[in-house]
Design goal:
The protein has about 425 residues and is an alpha/beta fold. The protein has 14 helices and 15 strands. Helix 7 packs across helix 8, helix 8 packs across helix 9 and helix 11 crosses helix 13.
């Protein structure tokens, strides 16, 4: 008798690194699933082709799980006939994620089965059971989280540190937190160097030259922000003191935080040199500043709310600055710059021709962008050469505040094409327009 082939996806998950390292949780899930398969799909009748998808040390409340995403993609492609899990909470501990997975499954040929819960997603009753178990899974996660936080707060109140040891500390045989002097001297070095130079990169280089230790700027930034190093810990807005031995004096820690705050303000001002000067060429409305925070990185944009378009204007600074410097020095050019000026005038006419040809459909969009970018780049370089030769404006030596004042003094509006990400027009205070 010919055996029936069944393509099976087995999904397993554990939440903590400890569970992942011990493999106990995963082994229990795998054993239970194999027993279920053996009972429901006897090997003498079925040819079982199993693919494992295992997410280790990650919460079921997160949808961005590599193995889960891989499995769902294959399910959508109708690769699997059967998907087996131990419990629904292994699949997800969030109602919205559970609902999304259910939609993916019911729109494919795959059948989702749990070894401990009986439901059939093709029926109203089975969907009800699935949804109820999803709710219980999310509820259980919330209860576990609350119990964990209560336990942590209780230990913090007793001046005990309930988390794993941070860099600079170590637990002794009695599980009491002590200072790790070898690591603590690195932490002190980072604080002292940052107070002296105000730069993560310089601190990183000095660590390499002094201790031959390579760390990232992100590590330095996080180390400088940890209140643990001054002996306290902040949890849910409450500060708990004397929970750790002190590595950094409080006055030193507070001084570093002030420096970091000032550096952040300076960095942000550098990202928005043009203040309120940016306008959308399409709707003629002033754009607003928009900070987009991503994990370990920030992106600074100007946003046209009417058109709902964004642009990172930092990439256009060279083009804008050279044009403004060129305008300011317009009446001071010497004969030595005649060849530069003639070339600029030619390129400006060439650019207008390209724009016209694109508008009437004579050239393709890809060619249009390539040529316009090349022309703008050459114009910017020529204008910058003129500014340097005249030596009247040393833009490169200005700080962020000086650059902002420079633009506010000479520029009225900067029109941006948010669709094509190009500078369309600059309106100067003297009511002259330079493209």
């Amino acid at each position: 008798m010919k055996k029936h082939t069944v393509n099976v996806a087995i999904y397993m998950r554990v939440s903590t690194k400890k569970q992942a390292d011990s493999k106990l949780g995963l082994e229990a899930q795998e054993r239970n699933i194999h027993e279920w398969l053996k009972y429901n799909y006897p090997y003498q009748d079925y040819e079982i082709d199993i693919t494992y998808f295992v997410d280790e040390a990650i919460s079921g409340a997160k949808f961005e799980r590599i193995q889960l995403q891989n499995m769902l993609k294959l399910i959508q492609e109708n690769y699997f006939d059967l998907c087996v899990i131990y419990k629904i909470d292994r699949l997800a501990r969030d109602i919205e994620i559970s609902a999304h997975i259910r939609k993916v499954v019911i729109n494919s040929k795959c059948v989702l089965c749990s070894t401990t819960e009986n439901f059939d997603l093709t029926t109203i009753e089975g969907t009800f059971v699935y949804n109820i178990n999803s709710v219980f899974g999310e509820y259980e996660r919330a209860v576990i989280k609350k119990r964990t936080e209560d336990s942590q707060i209780s230990r913090l109140t007793r001046k005990e540190y309930p988390f794993r040891a941070s860099y600079g500390y170590i637990r002794d045989d009695n599980k009491v937190m002590q200072i790790n002097e070898d690591e603590a001297k690195i932490i002190r070095f980072i604080f002292n160097e940052y107070m002296a130079c105000h730069s993560y990169e310089i601190v990183r280089q000095n660590l390499i030259s002094t201790y031959n230790i390579k760390v990232s700027e992100d590590f330095i930034s996080r180390a400088l922000s940890k209140t643990q190093y001054k002996g306290c810990f902040v949890k849910n807005g409450v500060t708990y003191y004397d929970v750790l031995p002190v590595i950094i004096a409080e006055d030193v820690f507070d001084t570093v935080q002030k420096i970091k705050k000032e550096s952040y303000k300076a960095k942000r001002s550098e990202q928005y040199l043009y203040s309120d000067l940016i306008f959308c060429v399409k709707c003629r409305q002033r754009s607003i500043k928009k900070l987009v925070k991503k994990p370990r990185k920030r992106y600074y944009y100007y946003h046209c709310e009417t058109c709902n378009k964004y642009i990172n204007i930092e990439k256009k600074e060279y083009e804008i600055s050279s044009t403004v410097c060129y305008h300011v020095l317009e009446n001071k050019y010497t004969e030595d710059n005649t060849q530069y000026i003639n070339r600029i005038n030619y390129l400006e006419k060439r650019k207008q021709t390209i724009i016209h040809d694109y508008a009437v459909g004579a050239i393709a969009l890809i060619y249009y962008h390539e040529v316009i970018d090349a022309i703008n780049d050459e114009i910017s370089k020529l204008k910058y050469k003129i500014a340097i030769k005249e030596n009247s404006i040393n833009y490169s030596q200005m700080n962020a505040i000086q650059k902002t004042l420079f633009y506010q003094t000479h520029v009225s509006k900067i029109y941006i094409n948010f669709d094509n990400k190009i500078v369309e027009n600059i309106v100067f205070k003297e009511n002259k327009k330079k493209k």
